[in-house]
Amino acid sequence: MRIPVAGGELTVRVWGDGPRTVLALHGITANHLAWRAVADRIPPGIRVVAPDLRGRGDSTAPGPYGMAAHAADGIAVLDALGVDTAVVAGHSMGGFVALVLADLFPARVSRLVLVDGGPPLPMPPGDTDDERIEAVIGPAATRLAMRFASVEAHRDFWRRHPALGDWTPDIESYVDYDLTGTPPELASKVSADAVRADSVDTFAGTALRGAWERLRHDAVLLRAEYGMLGAKPALYPDPEVLADRLPVRTVDGTNHYTILLGGAGATAVAAHL
Q: pTM above the 0.90 mark?
């Protein structure tokens, strides 16, 4: 469905039906189909609502971006669906958005499920914003400037990603949905401006760090064992430093991608939801 927000609309996918709602927020260069494998494992009675965040997928809302803007969009989605309170889940940057949403709109959140994202990360290495973005998301940012001759060429690019492992229909639909244009000039739907603005906001903005310091909701962090390239270090290498703020559960054998897109990771996330 299409839901109006400030400046435009968000494309929103809804799986299931029932009295309980999960608002599921994706990562910085992702789209709503990142949640498909999880949604397929949710039992009856729970509705999973996953928007394309502004600057991603088929959402038309332009900037300004940033965690507070995405949080306000999340509330607009809940309002449009008549949802008073929801479990808010976020993967990667979606976890940052979830924290800020809970901080700004505490009465709308019953619980937080943070999936390899949420707690602020250390300032990445680099002297400029572009160098820091490259240090954190690397190939994911590089892809935004690439052009692909065909859908299959784009799939081949993703098949070579060291973190994806087994190729599944869920992964294929996720990467196919990200494409726009016509061959041989297919490109990602993700706005490079959105990625840059959101990255800078997580490094230098005050909304995320303030939300983390004021965290007062029931929350859990589901941590991947491995990082964005399928190897150690993990995105959160030392869970002990976070344990005084919220429970941390490591999902063994998963990396930053497969904790959501892989079967074992999606099953674990669904169980916590």
A: yes
